[in-house]
Design goal:
With 605 residues, this protein is an alpha/beta fold. The chain contains 20 helices and 23 strands. The protein starts with a strand and ends with a strand. Bound molecules: iron/sulfur cluster.
């Protein structure tokens, strides 16, 4: 057995609030050997990030470590002088967080920042050797054109590349102990899968013990040798991934497993046999291009082709999913649909009426029947307004009801979304992300809309809270007959609730079909790649080795000729680099934009 690297004994961390102590971690004990990967899994608020930081000796106000020790190679990290701890943290101990965007100074090139950090903690390495080390590592983590990227600034890196740069930053000083704190959470599913593949590659080369922390049980099980389950600041179960999945002992672990979506093991929701022919929302050939400053030239501009000729229809009572990676145009489309912005070309009709031709009064009425729920539950609510008044405000804007009737409706709708009577007087600041999202749902629901557009509404929540809110959406639909348009990067979530799915890539719909066809018989290579990257506890029919994408999408400023997926497509043919495939009707309600489907094409869409 290799050397015992890290020992945590009886660690308790408290939050100092109003002169008292609120427990955050209670009596946590764990151990890590060299070259071992220890997984820590639990939902948001379970204390994972506080534990992650405590493991590298980082417990800052208003938190206090009230009991216990964190020993790295025998030294108590919590008790050592701050300067010694700082040096250790940059050298033998590495930390990779979930927010690479805020981890780099925006005014300095990425490579230079990493070199400076290496030199600050390693007296034995000069600037030239440090630069060579960083360049080698940038190459090792598959950052293309590493020498050029070394001199680029953080804003020139994509989210996935910044996360790779964070890994380089942590590895540059050869740490013996590495903490990865929720590192895949902010990333798209394909980029997250690439980062996990990279970690698998690196772990065999690294002479380091790794603590890998995540809210996603499939992601933790994919990499951990052993794991602990954290709930409300306490370890409730210790196990190996295989043992935990086969026989979870603690009810919380059982719930954690049960809440993981089953993707291929159960049939998806069928398209209703008598799907309503009534079209609630019709999108015809919609295009949006933004003109932005060109940072490479004085006074120059460039065109970002955000949405390119998108068409689809949402029928009454159905749930349509719109999926794709960041930058595929989903959010632009959501702004166009809610008429916050107008398309350059094409038409959007709500219940048969062209939105472009609506008067201000008609637009207000349309917005009542057509509610948009956004991702960020924190910034959607007025911070100084009690929750009850926030919910009432939606009704007051549209007028027509007295105070008593509004108060009754607020009470009813808050109960319906699972908020308590007492919550009416609370301010948003004390509420969790899930509770705030319930308030946003109540604000939309009180207007009795026909169509709810959920734009990454559940993305900021952990899987357990997501599952609870999906249950709520299902109940609400059964009771009120809503039509949903789910816009999300999360295929597992969309799979659970949607009857049809449109897949977007670089501003275009590349596949549109019923959920069963998309998940079991996808017709576009990009859809297969997305499916291969979905984290799940099941055996997947689409293997990452066959389908997982390399690299990231090309810039919408500089789209290649032909199929915009060609640079990443494992099946690209010469024709693909010249001619752009149209979205064609394959029959049975399935549409696809790929030359591989040409023999099946029945007619052009
Ligand atoms: Fe791949 Fe060609 Fe199909 Fe595009 S058209 S997805 S490059 S096979």
């Amino acid at each position: 057995m290799s050397e015992r690297l890290l020992t945590v004994e009886g660690l308790s961390v408290d939050l100092v609030r109003d002169g008292g102590l609120v427990p955050v971690l209670r009596d946590v004990s764990l151990a890590l050997e060299g070259r071992q990967v220890l997984g820590i899994v639990g939902e948001s608020g379970s204390g994972k990030t506080v534990l992650a930081k405590a493991l590298v000796g980082w417990v800052a106000e208003p938190l206090v470590a009230s009991r216990g020790v964190v020993r790295f190679r025998g030294q108590d990290l919590l008790a050592m002088p701050p300067e010694a701890r700082r040096i250790l943290r940059g050298s033998a101990v590495g930390y990779i967080g979930a927010d690479p965007g805020s981890s780099f100074d925006p005014t300095l090139p990425v490579g230079r920042q990493i070199v400076e950090k290496v030199q600050a903690v390693r007296a034995d390495i000069d600037a030239r050797a440090a630069k060579k080390r960083v360049l080698d590592l940038l190459d090792r983590v598959h950052i293309p054109s590493a020498a050029r990227r070394f001199d680029e600034f953080p804003h020139q890196y994509s989210g996935g590349m910044l996360q790779r740069a964070m890994i380089v930053d942590a590895l540059a000083s050869d740490p013996a102990f590495l903490v990865c704190d929720n590192i895949t959470q902010p990333l798209d599913v394909t980029v997250a899968a690439q980062i996990m593949r990279l970690l698998h590659e690196l772990r065999s080369d690294l002479d380091a013990g790794i603590v890998f922390i995540s809210t996603s049980l499939p992601v933790v099980c994919d990499i951990a040798d052993e794991l602990v389950v954290l709930s409300r600041g306490e370890i409730v179960e210790r196990s190996t991934p295989a043992r935990l999945l086969e026989a979870p002992a603690h009810p919380y672990s059982q719930d954690l497993i049960a809440r993981n979506p089953i993707i291929w093991g159960t049939p998806p929701l069928p398209v209703p046999a008598e799907a309503s022919p009534r079209v609630i929302l019709a999108v015809d050939d919609v295009t949006k291009t933004y003109v932005v400053p060109d940072r490479t030239r004085f006074f120059g501009t460039q065109a970002v082709k955000a949405v390119r000729g998108v068409s689809f229809a949402v029928h009454g009572g159905e749930n349509l999913g719109l999926v794709g990676e960041s930058g595929c145009g989903k959010s632009t489309l959501s702004r166009l649909l809610s008429w916050v912005e107008q398309p350059d070309q094409g038409r959007i009709r709500f219940k048969g009426q062209d939105i472009a031709g609506m008067s201000a009064q008609q637009l207000l009425a349309m917005r009542k029947g057509f509610q948009l729920l956004l991702q960020d539950p924190f910034n959607c609510l007025p911070p100084n307004l009690p929750i009850g008044r926030s919910v009432a405000m939606s009704l007051q804007i549209h007028g027509g009801l007295g105070r008593k009737a509004i108060a009754e409706q607020v009470r009813a709708v808050m109960a319906e979304v699972g908020l308590k009577e007492d919550d009416r007087e609370r301010l948003p600041i004390g509420m969790s992300a899930g509770q705030r999202q319930r308030v946003n749902i109540a604000r939309a629901l009180i207007l009795e809309p026909e169509l709810l557009i959920l734009d990454e509404t559940l993305s900021a929540l952990d899987p357990m809270e997501q599952a609870r809110l999906l249950d709520l959406f299902e109940r609400l639909q059964a009771r009120h007959g809503f039509t949903y348009l789910f816009i999300s990067h999360d295929l597992a979530m969309v799979r659970r609730v949607c009857t049809r799915i449109a897949v977007m890539y670089l501003g275009k719909v590349v596949e549109l079909a019923d959920t069963r066809s998309v998940f079991f018989e996808p017709t576009h290579p990009y859809t297969r790649a997305l499916l291969s990257a979905v984290p799940t506890l099941e055996e997947k029919p689409f293997k990452a080795a066959d389908c997982l994408l390399e690299g990231e999408p090309p810039s919408p400023i500089d789209l290649p000729q032909g199929c915009s997926f060609a640079a990443r497509c494992p099946h690209a043919m010469p024709r693909c680099r010249v001619e752009e495939p149209p979205l064609v009707d394959l029959g049975g309600g399935r549409f696809s934009a790929c030359w591989l489907n040409e023999p099946e094409v029945s007619r052009a869409a």
